[in-house]
Amino acid sequence: MNRKLIALTVLSSILLGGCQAGDLPFVKNDKGEQEKNQSETGGHSDKKADKEPDDLQASSEMTIPSSSYNVTTDINGKKVIQNSDNLLILVNKEYALPGDYAPKDLVKPNVNFSFGDSDDEKSFLRQEAAKALEDMFQAAMGEGIELFAVSGYRSYQRQEVLFNAEIQQVGREKAEQAVALPGTSEHQTGLSMDISSKSEDLLLTQSFESVPEGIWLKENAYKYGYIMRYPKGKEDITGYEYEPWHYRYVGKETAKILHDKNYTLEEYFKTGKKI
Ligand SMILES: [Zn+2]
């Protein structure tokens, strides 16, 4: 009985220890019930050992149409996107939108806004993203989760005003760290919405991650085609601080892939196979 207990303790410590393949010999010489445990543990560890081929297989299956990739032109040493209507557009510190780009299908979604009912440009999104936002907010409400849209579309000109105001306040160097350069804000795509809740006083705060509204979004947004664009721990990849409030529409199919694989949009394009 005691031996069994010890074996179980050993087994659980192996399981909790993350099933490193190197832990296996530890169980190898045990008998009887332990042997059964060994095969279970072994099976589990094998899964880990197989992880790499699994991933490779998955990534070879993850094909991305070439039309979803950015088409760019170098202007003054910057990569400026030429196919800006692409729903999977990748805008970041590397890829910028042209100064004269504005989506042609901006509409105002029928959702709650933090600033009430106004036709300010920040209430707009591209048509497909707006419909998906409505579906998402409605589904959340059905579960007692009340969401508020805070900031959607932002024109190049508006971003320029915000950026210049920041320069006035803190100087150019600091402004470049805090505010996206005009053309590099994803809000100019009309595919992004900042979201908050009454529990966060309708503000954009990192603590949104731990209130029910933020948790619901993190778990469910992909079902409506949205992804958390700047997740925690991926700051080096996205180039942006963690923003639990910033959601980006990419369509249901891509959102599910990104959610299941825990990929950012950057990783998706890097890993996927262009066809
Ligand atoms: Zn945002």
Structure description:
The protein is an alpha+beta fold and 275 residues long. It has two domains: 2-49, no CATH class; 70-274, Muramoyl-pentapeptide Carboxypeptidase, domain 2, CATH 3.30.1380.10. It contains eleven helices and eleven strands. A four-stranded antiparallel β-sheet has the order 7-8-10-9. The chain has a three-stranded mixed β-sheet with strand order 2-3-4, with no helix packed on it. A two-stranded parallel ribbon has the order 1-11. The N and C termini lie far apart (59 Å). Bound molecules: zinc ion. The site of zinc ion has 4 residues, from strand 8.
Question: What is this structure, in a nutshell?
Answer:
This protein is of the alpha+beta class and 275 residues long. Helices cover 42% and strands 14% of the residues.
Give start-end ranges of low-pLDDT stretches. Answer: 1-59
* Overall number of strands: 11
Helix share bin: 40-55%
Overall 3D shape:
globular
Q: What is the highest CATH level, the class of the largest domain?
A: Alpha Beta
Strand arrangement in the largest pleated sheet: 7-8-10-9
Query: From the coordinates shown, what is the CATH architecture of the largest domain?
Result: 2-Layer Sandwich
Beta fraction = 5-15%
- Report how far apart the termini are: 59 Å
Order of helices and strands: HHHHEEEEEEHEHHEHEHEHHE
The total number of structural domains is: 2
Hetero compounds: zinc ion
Q: Mean pLDDT score, rounded?
A: 83
Count of discrete alpha- or pi-helical segments spanning 4 or more residues? 11
Structural class: alpha+beta
Rg is: 23 Å
Report on the biggest sheet. Answer: 4 strands, antiparallel
CATH fold node name of the largest domain: Muramoyl-pentapeptide Carboxypeptidase, domain 2
Domain D-alanyl-D-alanine carboxypeptidase-like core: 124-252
Biased composition (Basic and acidic residues): 28-51
Organism: Peribacillus deserti
GO molecular function: peptidase activity
